[in-house]
Design brief:
single chain; globular; 24% strand; 17 strands
Length: 403
């Protein structure tokens, strides 16, 4: 993974202007990627892609998805407000997320957002009452938490999580309390960042079959099966990109083999991850008990994912170097050993004053981080769009938000 030659002058410009950490988003690359996905999807209009904006809710990114015809998956009132401000129409919004209060469900209908994933019996009953008071009939997917036999995942895997209800709970649903809802199918998503299409197919086939049986038991027509996301992107040179043509072939076969009318996916990481880069400076270099360390200007206060998953973002030294590479344990500026960005290969002459570029950070970057701990600067956000460099947000000091 290398910085594109045409982007280097722009990155140098931002470094000279701010001398502070920043995210850089290649929206031209993102637009080309989305157009490619859209052209592939034209093969089967019954397979629909949404963008899970929790991956990156920046307005400029949302507008690219809007312009490419994608619907947007939201999971909070803040995301709803951001999406609506970005010009996405309510009918192109899908509401997910495990914590939906009565107030929140009412706000959805007030904003004319009427495609809702219900994650509990309570949410079904609450939404039903609210819908009746509005004389509306929202489309609803019931989120099912299934049992698995293999492994953990950031989405739960075989662990018990707050997502959805199990089969028995849904089968106990009182239909008289859901008469104002149009229940169009099921939502199941428990596995994330998978790079093996065969494993994805195995998971999705189990979901498709088990969900079909639940629909039959509930007396629900199997209109929509929402498989969430789960398609990974490579974070190391040993991993390969997933080709969406192969994914589409799997989805089409699942739809046809199990008799689902439509299959939905909510892409986050796979859609936007490769088009973001995080730039930060090396502050210090030292050797501790035989291990070489680099201490950076930014760490998990800007990109927390490595501390959560143990999987670092790939890194590149911004300048040219002919030195042999070696492993460095890389840390940010926070007063906690959790501020660890991984042990990664860099040229041995990397040192204070150098800039590092962390790739694949367009998804689950800044908005997943812990930016306020220790009151360091918030990173800038910079975009490249239609060949033009733009800076939607400059670095922010603690004085901008401390009270």
């Amino acid at each position: 993974m290398k910085i594109k030659a045409e982007h280097r002058p722009h990155l140098e410009t931002v470094i000279k202007r701010f001398d502070s950490s920043f995210f850089y988003y290649d929206l031209d690359g993102l637009k080309d990627h989305l157009k490619g996905l859209s052209s592939i999807m034209d093969e089967d209009p019954d397979i629909l892609l949404w963008y899970a904006c929790k991956a990156n809710p920046m307005s400029a990114i949302l507008k690219v998805f809007r312009n490419c015809g994608f619907g947007i998956d939201v999971a909070s009132k803040g995301e709803i407000d951001q999406v609506l401000r970005s010009g996405i129409k309510p009918e192109k919004i899908l509401s997910t997320g495990p914590s939906k209060s009565r107030k929140y469900l009412r706000e959805l209908l007030e904003e004319n957002i009427e495609i809702v994933v219900c994650e509990s019996l309570n949410q079904v009953y609450w939404l039903n009452d609210i819908a009746a008071s509005f004389s509306k009939r929202p489309k609803v997917l019931l989120r099912v938490q299934m049992e698995w036999e293999d492994g953990e995942s950031v989405l739960g895997g075989n662990e018990i999580t707050p997502f959805g209800e199990d089969r028995d709970a849904w089968l106990s649903m009182e239909k008289s309390k859901a008469q104002s809802l149009d229940i169009i199918g099921l939502h199941v998503f428990q596995w994330g960042n998978i790079l093996d299409p065969k494993r994805l197919e195995s998971i999705w086939r189990k979901i498709a079959g088990d969900s079909l049986e639940i629909c039959r038991e509930l007396g629900i027509e199997p209109q929509v099966l929402d498989l969430g996301g789960g398609i990974g992107i490579p974070y190391s040179s040993q991993e390969r990109n997933v080709q969406f043509e192969e994914i589409l072939s799997i989805l089409k076969s699942i739809k046809n083999d199990f008799g689902w009318q439509k299959v939905w996916m909510e892409l986050g990481r796979y859609a936007v991850g490769p088009y973001g880069h995080y730039m930060t400076q090396v502050i210090d270099k030292k050797t501790v008990r035989g291990r070489d360390l680099l201490i950076l200007d930014g760490g998990v206060n800007h990109i927390v994912r490595p501390a959560i998953t143990g999987q670092p973002f790939p890194v590149e030294l911004f300048r040219e170097s002919s030195a042999a590479t070696q492993k460095f344990q890389i840390h940010g500026p926070l007063c906690t050993a959790l501020d660890n960005l991984g042990t990664l290969e860099l040229p041995s002459d990397t040192g204070p004053g150098d800039w590092l570029c962390f790739h694949q950070s367009g998804a689950y970057g800044f908005t997943e981080a812990m930016p306020f701990f220790l009151c360091h600067n918030l990173p800038a956000e910079v975009i490249m769009y239609e060949g033009n460099l733009m800076i939607p947000r400059t670095p922010r000091k603690a004085e901008d938000w401390l009270v």
